Amino acid sequence: QQQVKQSPQSLIVQKGGIPIINCAYENTAFDYFPWYQQFPGKGPALLIAIRPDVSEKKEGRFTISFNKSAKQFSLHIMDSQPGDSATYFCAAREGGKLIFGQGTELSVKP
Amino acid sequence: DTGVSQDPRHKITKRGQNVTFRCDPISEHNRLYWYRQTLGQGPEFLTYFQNEAQLEKSRLLSDRFSAERPKGSFSTLEIQRTEQGDSAMYLCASSPGQLHPQHFGDGTRLSIL
Which of B29, B32, B36, B83 gets the most CB atoms within 10 Å of its CB? Predict the structure, then answer.
């Protein structure tokens, strides 16, 4: 059972574009929603996170939009750069553990 | 480097052998988590500790898997009688507490021949 569904599986944008990655969940017990960035051979690195009582959070070029009623949240990357090419994972916290989405492989073309 | 440290980074072993991985969390982080990640998938939760107490184990953690955190600092994850399906990246994360972000190490990649 997939508790956190992430789309798209892969995404290609031009430099300067705004990739958007979407996630959906069912479990209303989730209380915290982080996004992680992972480069090949490395562990996931925390990018930005949001709690369900907030509808939007910005940190630098990264923005999370959160729709509690629709049980959906998304990551926007402003002014994307080739260095942003990586795999992005959304996650949701239940108790002590994180439940991850399947990941989105982002490629930013120069 | 004050991040989460995992050792070894790579482990190649024959099917049926036992393997042990070590994780050193960020200093003073009392929560330590183990996840498993297979190629093209997101990390899957295995187990976590608060100090030396193991608080939750996933159904993914079969009887062949055991994790310890004897003094509430570093942790070990042992897999006995390894199988082909155990090939994965084993990730460790730590946090100062339940309501704090989890920070991951770079993992141990296990390959079963």
Answer: B32
Around Cβ A3, how many Cβ atoms within 10 Å? 14
Tally the residues of chain B: 113
Tell me, what's the pLDDT at B2? Answer: 79
Averaged pLDDT, B84-93: 97
With CA atoms as reference, report the closest residue to B32 among B92, B89, B101. B92
* Tokens (6 digits) for B18: 């036992």
**Distance between first and last Cα of chain B:** 32
Q: How far is A11 from chain B (nearest CA, A)?
A: 14
Which DSSP helix (H) or strand (E) runs through B75?
A: strand B75-79
Cβ contact, residue pair A98, B43, below 8 Å: yes
Chain A residue closest in CA terms to B10 = A41
Question: What does the alpha-carbon distance between residue A4 and residue B81 come to, in Å, rounded to a whole number?
Answer: 32
* Residues A58/A65, Cβ–Cβ less than 8 Å: no
Give B37's DSSP letter.
Answer: E
Q: Is the pLDDT of residue B1 over 60?
A: no
